[in-house]
Each structure stands twice: as C-alpha cells, then as structure tokens.
Amino acid sequence: MIRTAILAAKEAGDFLLDNFGNIKEIRQKKDLTFATNVDQGAEKIIVDIIKSRFPAHGILAEEKEKKDLNNEFLWIIDPLDGTHNYMHGISIYGVSIGIFSQGEFISGVIYMPYDDELYVGEKNNGAYKNGKKISVSSCAELKNCSLSFDSSLRNSPEEMIPVLDAAARKVFNLRMLGSSARLLSYVAEGKLDGAIEFHDLPWDFAAGACLIKEAGGIFTDLSGNPPTPQTRGYVSGNKTMHTGLMGMIKTGLK
User: What's the pLDDT tens digit per position in 183-229?
Assistant: First the structure.
C-alpha cells in the first residue's frame, strides 16, 4: 500500500507540476473554496492507480470519489492541497494520501512536486523525507516556537481570532502557508514547531496525521482526541508544543 501511495502521489505530482500556470477551468464550491480542472485530473490519476491495485478498498477524495467509507482500509486523498496557492502561481502545494484502518491513520504520503520532496510515514516504521529519517522539533518553550496557524480566518473569526491573539502573545512567530501538506511536512521534520487548524477536513490532514506521529509528535483534534475521518480541525507538534497549543485554544475559546 505504501508503494502504491508513493506511485500515485508522484504521478499526480508530476501532473500538477506540468500544469502549473496552465489552469483551464476554475469553479467555486459550496464552501466558497475553489477547485480547478487540475485538481480533478490529479484525483483521477490517484484513484485509478489505487483501484487498479486495491479495488475492494474504500476511497474518500476531496473532489469527487467517495466509495465504501466504512471499509477496513480507507484511502483519504487530497490531489492538490493548496489549490488557492496553485491558482495564484505560488509554489506551496502538494499531494496528500493517507490510509485509515481499524481506528487510526496507519500510513501517510505527502509529495511536494515543486521541491521534489517526498514524505512517508508508516505505523511503527518511522517518518522519512526522501528516504532519510525525520523527527519533530525539540523546541521546549513556546516563546521560541514557530507556529503555523489556520489561514481561513473568514470562516469563523469570532472563534479563531481570540486563539490567534493568545498565540501571538506566547510564541516567537506565526506562519500561514495555505497548505496543510506543506505545514504538516514542516512540522514532521522540525522546521515548524507546531500547527493549529480549525477548518481542515480529513483529506487535508490524513497523510500528516500519521507522518507526525511517526516523527515523534502528537496529532489530535481540537479537543485533544485522536483524529478520525470525521475530524474537523487539528493541533500538532511535539509533546511540549501540543500541550501549550491546547492551552492557547482553551484560553482563546473561554
């Protein structure tokens, strides 16, 4: 399954790279986000590869494919994470493929085609970037940490801005990258110390959930519970950062 996820991510990533700056169609979805013909094309590449090798498995993909969601093995796919960046010619985008089985995310593959960076996490087998083992940051104090924060402030400013304010007062700096594939891969390799996202859905974080856990970090929903395919929003980082970030959420949401 890992080999299949890697193949699918790279094939889709090559397609994204080939079409970067050459979008033919853009449509706005009900949640006011956008999708392009490239999102759909990349999803088809991934789904076709998975179906050819594991036809009985379930698939949950962002754009179209939703099949056997209660299957023992559920592939959760974001064919183009960072669509809005991609639309504007910003090279912060990637492919995210995670597998959920028996109550947990057991594997995750993130491919960032513009930088040719492949991240792989597998349950009990560690996390890797281009074949080299990676681990989360060892930062032990919030005042020294770099935190990624949800860029979709317009979705619930009354909920998010108090938490952002609490974070701004405690951490060294904040980043909004517009791509969960990018920020979660950065958390996994220690380039970012933690992340808070309020509105990300399973296809956004399915690969990163396993990747961060295997890199020695913690990944939970906004209440501190293990993530599932129904989760919306998350907190991630090393053990110290996760505890501190959960405290910020509680402070901001009082």
Answer: 999 999 999 999 999 999 999 999 999 999 999 999 999 999 999 99
Can you give the pTM of this predicted structure?
0.93
Answer yes or no: are the C-beta atoms of 97 and 77 closer than 8 Å. yes
CATH architecture of the region 142-252: 3-Layer(aba) Sandwich (3.40)
Contact in structure between 219 and 213 (CB atoms under 8 Å): yes
Identify which of 1, 112, 4 has the alpha carbon closest to the alpha carbon of residue 48: 4
Query: How do residues 143-153 score in pLDDT, each as one tens digit?
Result: 999 999 988 88
Question: Please, which residues have CB within 8 angstroms of residue 116's CB and are 6 or more apart in sequence?
Answer: 130
Q: Which residues contact 209 (CB under 8 A, 6 or more apart)?
A: 98, 105, 108, 219, 227, 234
Look-up: residue for tokens 């493929």? 97
Please name the amino acid found at residue 20.
F
Give the side-chain half-sphere CA count within 13 A for 33. Answer: 19
Residues of the chain with CATH 3.30.540.10: 2-133
Residues of each domain in the chain carrying CATH 3.40.190.80: 142-252
What span, in angstroms and rounded, lies between the C-alpha atoms of 40 and 22?
14
DSSP state of 20: T
Domain 2-133, CATH among 3.30.540.10, 3.30.310.40, 3.40.140.80, 3.40.50.800: 3.30.540.10
| Cα–Cα distance for residue pair 148/153, rounded to 1 Å | 13
